[in-house]
Amino acid sequence: MSRRPASGAARKLVGLSLLISLASCVNVIPRQSAVVLPPAENAVALGVKPGPSISDLSLTGADASAALASFRESCPRVMSRTDASGLTRPDDWRPACTAAENWGAGSAVLFFLSYFETVQVGDGKAHATGYYEPEIVGSRTRHAGFDVPIYGLPPDLVRAKPDDAEPLANGRMPIGRYGPDGRFTPYWDRAAIEQGALMGRGLEIGWAADPVEFFFLQVQGSGRLRAPDGTVMRIGYAGQNGLPYTGIGGLMRQRGLIGDGPGQYPGSMQGIMQYIHEHPAEGKALMDENKSYVFFRELSGDGPLGALSVPVRAESSVAADPRYVPLGAPVWLDLDRGEADGMWIAQDTGGAIKGANRFDTFWGAGSQARTIAGGMSGRGEALVLVPKGTRARLGVR
């Protein structure tokens, strides 16, 4: 059950499940426009069962220590936000958070044994993908070889005023812009933006060298730009143009371009990138079918920020649907991908991460993180750890 390095078979550079379904990480990082769920549906409405004792989970000291550190960082937010899952209340977390402030890492397993109990949400059948913080070649300024603009959030990207547009299914007004005639209209799509709709407005915060690499950084929702002089600029999700996300991996599979058959490209992020680079016109048209476009802001400080506005940590942070998992809660995964087994802290969300027991594991930055995250698609079981006393209060027996 301990987290271990990926096997050779596990190291194919995929991200296909992410690319097919991602609609943002929202997050976190992010990530893309969300799939809307029925307003009343959450963990309590779906059904909750008691899980096993934490002492039966084979929690290791190293795993518990990393999870405790991430949980501690989440505590200020956990104790001040409403839990959309219906499982917990802000004050429920206070005993664990108070104890976590000065708890020694050497007895981290005891911390979780002392303050938590487990629940199974729905049938507990889990599906986990992976994400990472990509690093691409880029620069703060435009010069030869660096001419792919990275835009900050446009000031005319706004939410419609009441009566100016049809509300979305979740009741909120759509995002778009107001034209010269004062009428609300959808915002520029990917193709229009890449054709120059935003040029000349001073919105560029950086420039990328490869449009394909930048496209995949947008899928992830945050990343790093490494300049030729070795300096690094970290950028994070600032917003999205309000148009739906289309996963190009799914389109390519439907059209027979990727797969295991003769003449097909590998069903992986490497394979998808290879196809686009080798077929630039077709690849550009394919990317333009994803009308969603992500805007960025420069990040400073420690690590990319998740939906809780605290840093997400490699091999400790996981994105989840807050309707089914309280953000900040520990999550136990037991999957058919051993490197993702163990304790995680729900600190992020994602547009494709919708539904009970759907998770997106964070693997950090660098080539190994890219490999593991890209190839991550694990299935198994999940438990949510909640403060002791939660089951009794909810009548979960």
What is the H level of CATH, i.e. the homologous superfamily of one domain? RlpA-like domain
Annotation field: number of helices: 12
- In CATH, the topology of one domain is named Barwin-like endoglucanases
The span between the termini is 27 Å
Element order, helices and strands? Answer: HHEHHHEEEEEEEHEHEEHHHEEEEEHEH
Radius of gyration: 21 Å
CATH class of one domain, anyone? Mainly Beta
**Rounded average pLDDT:** 88
List the uncertain runs: 1-39
Approximate shape: globular
The helical percent reads 25-40%
Q: What is the CATH architecture descriptor of one domain?
A: Beta Barrel
Strand content: 15-25%
Class computed from helices, strands and strand pairing? alpha+beta
GO cellular component, one term: outer membrane
Enzyme class: lyase
Keywords: Cell wall biogenesis/degradation, Lyase, Signal
EC number: 4.2.2.n1
